[in-house]
Amino acid sequence: MVQTLKDLEREGRACLLKGRLKIDPYLTELEDDRGGISVILHPEDHVIDRIGVFIERLKSIDPNQYYYTSEQIHATVLSIISCFSGFRLSDIDQVKYLDVIGQAVNGYEPFKIHFQGISVTPVAVILKAKGDLGPLNGLRENIRSVFNDSGLYHSMDSRYKLTGAHITLVRFKDQVLDPKKFLSVIDESDLGDFGVASIDAVDFVFNDWYHTPSRTEVLGYFDLKMPD
């Protein structure tokens, strides 16, 4: 059974306050060779700047967590092949995957996403997308349809069907030093408006679990534009 975001938020708050956060072992002890391919989008600079201010507030309370940098900030359109151990780019025909994604986004118009609201889950702190996600989900359906027709391997929707959107800001490496103060900053920012981003392009990337810049490679850049 897939947990809802509200379930995860409720569990996350309890785990944070009771010192029971689910620590990511790949950030502390395990060697990480997981890789995958995704279609992602980047918010505009004004959204990233507000995210940076928020992250610095959390970092001042507990600098020991894994904080995403401005280069890593993104929202996932779809994970085409979800990260797994040992995946390499040589395992796929990049040209065929690029062609399929090009077909899916061809003629798709730019759209907007409103980022507002901070949540803590048992593993991370995230920024939520609010409002009408119809255009984003329409793009997702295009990608799903073209891939299903192509016969190319993918793992989309293998765990659940992605319909929402968020940006991961923090992953937990340890229990938080001052959980009440940390949570108070999250609660203060929960209704904060991080801005509306105009999305006029998507990237097709090879990535690790965290979209680490040194381990992420842009395979294709696709402009969204109205049909001629």
Outline the structure in words.
- There is one protein chain.
- The chain contains 5 helices and 9 strands, in the order αβαββαββαβαβββ.
- The model has no long low-confidence stretch (mean pLDDT 93).
- It is globular and about 50 Å long.
- The protein is α+β, with helices and mostly antiparallel strands and 228 residues long.
- The chain has a 5-stranded antiparallel β-sheet with strand order 2-6-5-4-7. It has a 4-stranded antiparallel β-sheet with strand order 3-1-8-9, with helices on one face.
- It has a single domain (5-223), classed as Cyclic Phosphodiesterase, Chain: A.
Helix tally?
Answer: 5
End-to-end C-alpha gap: 44 Å
Q: How large a portion of the residues is in β-strands, by DSSP E?
A: 25-35%
| Major pleated sheet | 5 strands, antiparallel
Global morphology: globular
Number of domains: 1
User: What number is the mean pLDDT?
Assistant: 93
Oligomer type: single chain
The H-and-E topology, N to C, reads as HEHEEHEEHEHEEE
Helix amount: 25-40%
Classified by CATH, the class is Alpha Beta
What is the fourth-level CATH superfamily? Cyclic phosphodiesterase
The CATH architecture name reads Alpha-Beta Complex
DSSP E strands, number? 9
Rg on CA atoms, Å: 18 Å
